[in-house]
Amino acid sequence: MRRRLSQSEVEPKSKNNYFGKSNLEFISTGCVNFDCVLGGGWPLGRIANLVGDKSTGKTLCAIEACANFARKFPDGHIWYREAEAAFDQEYAESLGLPVDKVDFGKDGVGTQWETIEQIHDDLKAAVAQGKASGEPGLYIIDSLDAISSVAELGREMTEGSYGMEKQKQLGQMFRRLTQGMSRSRIHFLIISQVRENIGVAFGNKYRRSGGKALDFYASQVVYLSHLKTLYKTVNKVKRATGVLVKVKCTKNKIGLPFRECEFSIRFGYGIDELAAAMEWLDQAGRAKELLNGSKLGDYLAESDRLDDVEYRRRMRDVRKLVRRAWREVDEQFAPSRRKY
């Protein structure tokens, strides 16, 4: 007697769901396109690695993550561990960093964070604080390249070394604390500097410090690249006003990998979310749903003249359309059936 096929075997699902991690909570990046690239934003309880060269907005992305986290979770915890001794608090505050809600360490912004061992002990205390309060958290290291290890600091400059102490300690820290961060709903954002792979003729020409531990434990690895500097001329005086940045997500356990987007960063303002969103919608053939016959340039210029209430209302409509259009585009590339 022939077995009767089940309904799922007769009619397999035709599309994969892009936003498949409905059980996660996200922190917005400050740019809806960037959120879509990541699969929803920076996820609570996970580790992300943000990698880039100079002038690509790595610290700015961290600042915007803090601002959006504070707005979404007013009682949450923000730990910002700045290790480069180059943090401009006034500028960060002008970009939206809620300085009064950020824990920089026992000495404030000037707290020195030198070793992986220090970060381990501090992160362990942050996990315990998050568990006790029941509130989520955002923990940022800016940047990993400026962090050393106890072994390295205790060694003379002339002593030989394989240079693996930092990588080993980093891997040990992840093994010890990953589960605690997940349970405490702490997002761990690690900023890294990009480095060139000397002698590489093919494959990836760029890398970042930290060894293989970051590749294994990070749910998201994002590379930022500087495309060009933006200029503006006023009364015959030309000045740089921002940079155009490209984002590529090379690893993603939250959404689909290898998604990309571009956005401009305006000095003293941050990511120009509206321009990035509208330009992408225009490329996808969807901007006309919002332009109402206007040209894109006129729409953006008009938006700058809106009051804060009207601008926020417009941004809500734009974000809603970008998310819907992004999903529809991705579904066009999804397999027509499931294999199993």
* Quantity of strands, as a count: 13
**Helicity level, as a percent range?**
25-40%
Largest beta-sheet characterization: 9 strands, mixed
Structural category:
alpha/beta
Q: Nearest-angstrom radius of gyration? A: 22 Å
The N- and C-terminal alpha carbons lie at a distance of 24 Å
Reported CATH architecture of the largest domain:
3-Layer(aba) Sandwich
Q: Tell me the CATH superfamily of the largest domain.
A: P-loop containing nucleotide triphosphate hydrolases
Strand line-up across the major sheet = 5-4-6-7-3-10-11-12-13
CATH topology of the largest domain: Rossmann fold
Mean pLDDT, as a whole number? 88
Structural domain count: 2
SSE pattern: HEHEEHEHEHEHHEEEHEEEEHHHH
Proportion of strand residues: 15-25%
CATH class of the largest domain: Alpha Beta
Low-confidence stretches: 5-19
Counting DSSP H or I runs of 4 or more residues, the number of helices is 12
Q: Tell me, briefly, the overall form.
A: globular
